[in-house]
Amino acid sequence: MKETGRSGCPINLTLEILGDRWSLIVLRDMMFGNRRHFRELLSKSDEGIASNILADRLKRLLENGLISRRDDASHKQKGIYSLTEMGISLVPVFAAMADWGRRFLPVTPEMSIRAEILAEGGPVLWRKFMDELRFLHLDAPRPTQSILDDLTTAYREAVERKRVAEAETA
Amino acid sequence: MKETGRSGCPINLTLEILGDRWSLIVLRDMMFGNRRHFRELLSKSDEGIASNILADRLKRLLENGLISRRDDASHKQKGIYSLTEMGISLVPVFAAMADWGRRFLPVTPEMSIRAEILAEGGPVLWRKFMDELRFLHLDAPRPTQSILDDLTTAYREAVERKRVAEAETA
DNA sequence: GCCAACCGCTTGCAAAATGCAAGCGGTTCT
DNA sequence: AGAACCGCTTGCATTTTGCAAGCGGTTGGC
Q1: Which of A127, A133, A159, A170 sits 20 to 30 Å CA-CA off A83?
Q2: Considering the domain boundaries, does residue A2 fall inside one?
């Protein structure tokens, strides 16, 4: 996505950076799955991104300022990717997209529980979540409450409910 | 964008439908520019979509239920494209994306004035706008106030301001 | 100290999507 | 009658994607 200079419209400029099938998936996994290493993003993804595509997207997200990269002190080869303020600010976009998706598309219950919580919590909850992301990815102070824990717990419980339900019918 | 069956995550499913560089551009022009015919979408776009891409995107948006198509009674060759409730429901997504874009990307002032108004108005304004879209695209009753007029007027005034400013420096 | 496992990331190649220009059969306007 | 316009398709070159293998280096267990 080079400098095409198509128009100064905010929607268009956003799409020039994020308008493909993988960029937002990578950011989603960093944001909601707290995946920070290349391998984590590569192998723990539900959608199975290819390694060359992941490398390319990370490079472009870096160039565009959505994420940053630093070396992992505990492992000379590992890099740690973090969200920048620009990346963290996408929380409302994710919340809006996820809410739309869960209302109109064939989502699975366990994958949409987090979207529901974000939709119900509204901007107040989003701001709390963004504060937590600033703690996890930038050097902001730790908030008292962990929204990410709440979301992850709710997701795990939904997965467990599904597992039990499937075990019963088997 | 065939049935890849990658995951039931709302974000992923949304991206499988809208995750490319043009689908949301087309919907944006229908929604905010009230462009309803093929030629209007083709030639009045600031970004210059190619005709084969436009045809393909309209087909896919139709298949996915975001828009509908009917014949234009006044012209046998023309089709009129309309947003469905599913398409109209993207208003909060557009508002979030536009707000993000105007804060972090090099938008031009006249192109971001509508994003500002939507951000300031919040969900209350979005709902009014969606009601108006239901009037314009579905068969809902006409609302008392036209948000689209407000947005368009603000945009035109911003363009005019820019024109005057440029004329002064010339 | 050795070796298997893992690290981020690259390479080569086939398949698909995109971008561009021209054009088609038909309709409408003058 | 002729020009302009209608939605949309075609052919073709370029770019992007997807997949599998692999590279040089690091780490951890024995």
Answers
A1: A159
A2: no
Of B66, B83, B100, the residue that ends a domain is: B83
Residue B1 lies in a domain: no
Model confidence at B102: pLDDT above 80: yes
Size of interface A-B (CB pairs under 8 A): 152
Confidence at B7, pLDDT banded by 50, 70, 90: confident
Q: Beta strand pairing status for B67-71 and A79-83? A: unpaired
Which of B9, B89, B103 minimises the CB distance to A107? B9
Residue A164 lies in a domain: yes
Strand D reaches within 7 A of the B150 CB: no
Q: What is the CATH number of the domain that holds A28?
A: 1.10.10.10
B47 touches chain A (CB under 8 A): yes
Residues of B in contact with A47 (CB under 8 A): 6-7, 9, 12
Question: CB-based contact (8 Å) between B54 and chain A?
Answer: no
Q: What is the reported pLDDT for B5?
A: 52
- pLDDT class for A45, splitting at 50, 70, 90? confident
A70 and A115 assigned to the same domain: no
Q: Averaged over B120-139, what is the pLDDT?
A: 98
The pTM assigned to this predicted structure is 0.94
Q: Produce one character per residue of B5-27: b if its CB has 16 or more CB atoms within 10 Å, e if not.
A: ebbbbbbbbbbbbbbbbbbbbbb
CB A26 within 8 A of CB A49: yes
Residues forming a β-bridge with A81: A69
